[in-house]
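Journal club side-thread
Mid-discussion, someone asked how the predicted structure for our own chain would compare to the paper's figures. Pasting it here so we can look after the session.
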Amino acid sequence: MLIRKPVEEVFEAMINPDITSTFWFTKSSGRVEPWKTLEWEGGQFSYVVDRDGQRINHMGTYREIQRPNRLVFTWGVDVEAGDESVVTITILPAESGCRLTLVHTLDPKWEEYKDRTQEGLSYMLGKLNKLLIGS
């Protein structure tokens, strides 16, 4: 995805919980509680979505933080260790801003959610783009 903002600004949006909480969930997520995050390799993040009275904790661990170009983290939802997927975000300079690439590697047992996950991530990155262009 091409974003017409500097690499550093886009990276900050991907890791800063005050910004991330405004786009990192889908339109059907419900109410999102404030993010909790420890922004270093090995640090963890967590945010709880209240959807129709059901509380779902989304959580992960930062595996790599290479400012401002690469962010790798696990992603899970109230799961036991081993069920997490891995998200790799690369942000590289482009002629008119930067290019963000997001790869979400799902555990094979979640294969049936692949299309829905891709749709949700596309929606969220679109929200990020709109948010940054408006700033």
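Post-session note: Strands lie at 2-3, 31-32, 36-37, 44-51, 54-66, 70-77, 85-94, 97-105.
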